[in-house]
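During the reporting period the student researcher (J.K.) took over the structure-prediction task from the postdoctoral fellow and processed the backlog of single-chain submissions. One of the processed entries is reproduced below for the supervisory committee.
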Amino acid sequence: MQTLYREFTTQAQIDAQYNASLGLSDPDAPGKHYVAQSALARATLKHTLDVPYGPTLQETLDIFPADAPNAPVFVFIHGGYWRALSSKEFSGVALGLQRRGITTVVVNYALCPFVSIDEITRQVRAAVAWTVRNIAQYGGDPQRVAVGGHSAGGHLTAMCLQTEWARDYGLVQDPIKAALCISGLYDIAPLRYSYLQPMIQLDEGVIQRNSPAFMARPCATPTWITWGGAETNEFARQSQIMLTAWQAQGNRAELRAVEGANHFTVLAGFEQPEGELCQWLAAQLGL
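J.K. obtained the following structure tokens:
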């Protein structure tokens, strides 16, 4: 029988691996949790919303400054398979980080099919460059900017790590001090055969330009590639191939799952200052 991707012969098999909502008793529960945590963050933390970083209406940042001046910074890139959600559902990542003394910047970007994944990658890179250049105005330390993201945001974080920052943006070559890739997609080819294809519209060119596992460059940024221990085999394999590609360039990375977490609860590590994700970032940023 002809295969679509690796050992998978049907769309249903690929969807079972990549549609993280399929195994949930209440598929709406993660979204409700994110919205509630985000409302709590905006009700209790200082913030500046919808700061423009680019020319289109969707290119905005939500900034949650730490209490102390010259604080380290974490730029968070949300998921939603490039075709759903916004920065507003992910204000909650600032809850634990702010109490660790970290300024949080949550990136908003345009969505498929209105724009391509190429354009989303461009927007996210522009958001990181804007943060490095401008975060001092919001009490952040531009010398200590970390970047991370979840699901599609994990993919976009990895794409940021491939960026030629000196050539394309006039920054130092490796301005990112730490990177956190959470439940990311690093070979996006299987999604061409999934339920997502009508929205994300992958072709061979998009796949080749936007599969970071196949374009790793030497990079000084220490990286944690992680996923939920209760996620499917494909999310674990995606993380492994990214680690292999990253280490093949002599780069520093660790591969470790968040035990017991699924694709959605893995983000709980941002909600309390003692959360595993908060602790790792604090250590990397010198706190």
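The committee noted the following: The domain at 47-284 is CATH 3.40.50.1820 (Rossmann fold).
J.K. will present the remaining backlog at the next meeting.
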